[in-house]
Design brief:
By secondary structure, this protein is mainly α. 60% of the residues lie in helices and 11% in strands. It has 9 helices and 8 strands. A hairpin with a 5-residue loop joins strand 5 and strand 6.
Length: 268
Amino acid sequence: MNLLKKFFVNSTQTAERKTKMVYVVYRLIAVGMLISQISMQRWGNVLLLGLTLVLFSAPYWIERKLKIELPNVLEVILISFVFSSTILGELSDFYGYFSAWDTALHAINGFLAGGVGFSLVYLMNKNIVGLNLTPLFISIMTFCFSMTVGVMWEFFEYSADQWLDFDMQKDRIVQEIHTVELGGGQNAVYHIEDIQRTVVESTDASGNTVETVIEGGYLDIGLIDTMKDLFVNLVGAVVFSVFGYLYVENDREKYTFLRNFIPKKKTK
C-alpha cells in the first residue's frame, strides 16, 4: 500500500501539497487509460501511456541528478505539458478538436526549455570561479538549448510515426505543390496549383487494389506541421532569451517573475 501511495504522489522534494495533488490526478487518469488500452490491446497507446508515466517522474530525477530545486510553478507546468501533449493531445484527440492546441504547446515548450537552458548556464556562471559570461552569451545559449530540445522532440515524433505507425507529425491538406521530381530533369521545378482531389492507389494484404480519394487537395504528411512547430518553438525561445538577458543585465532586480521558471542550486 505504501509503495502504491509513493507511486502516485512521487514528486520533487520541494513540491507543495497542491503540486502533489496535481501529480495524483494526472497519474490516476493515466493509469485508468492504461488499463483501458491494455484491455483493448492497443499496444501503441499502451506504450505512449507508459512513456507518459515515466515522464511524470522526470522533474524528480532532474532535481536529484542535477542537484537543483525546481520552482513549484515550473514543476506543475512541466507535468501539465506532458499530460496535455500525450493524454489530451494524442489519445483524446485535442489536436483534432482544437486547431491551436499543438501550436500553443510547442510555443510553451520553447519558453520552458529556454528556462531550463537559461538556469543551467546561469547557475554555472554563478558558481564556477573565474567564469564571467556576458548576458548576451547567456541569452544565446538559452536560445540554442531551447531550439535543440524542440528539434529533438520533432525527431521523436518522426520516429514514432515511422516505427509505431502513429501520426504525431500531423497531416495537412494543401492545394499546391512544387517539385523537381516531376520537372523533367535539370532541376526544373514543376508547379501544380489549385489541387481539387488526390487519388492514391495501394494494394492490400490480399493483393487487391485499394483506391483512396483525398478530397480538397493533396495530403502533406508532416512537413508543414514540423516547420510550424519549430517556428513557434523559436518564438517561445526568443521570448525567454530576451527576458533572460534583461534578468541578468539588471542583476535579478527586475523581471522577478522569471524566478518561477528558473531552477536554483539546491540548498543543503
